[in-house]
Amino acid sequence: QVQVAESGGGLAQTGGSLRLSCAASGRNLNSLVVAWFRQSPGKERECVVAFNKVGVTAYTADSVKGRFTISKDNPKNMAYLQMNNLKPEDTAVYYCAARSAYGFIWSNHSHDYTYWGQGTQVTVSS
Under a CB-based contact definition with an 8 Å cutoff, are residues 51 and 34 in contact? Predict the structure, then answer.
């Protein structure tokens, strides 16, 4: 059974950085398509950054372009979200999402992803 679990959230100051980690288990990461989503109170869950099936960044939300990058380490079965120049509006619960890469290219829609972590809170103070 595939599971993903996030870690690395916390409190940061405006302009600071955080790196979130996503640990995948039950399946090799190179057979999964991974994306990061976030949700803040009263707002819909939105895709922040998404890989395509060959591990290239396929989507980056306009609000985080130039500041957030996604990466992964297949041997470690880990994916990461590096967040730089954080802003108060980045405050949200961040989720790692994954799904089988078979027959799939990429998506920035939450309903296309099968496996979800429990989320990790990121709070950016002004």
Answer: yes
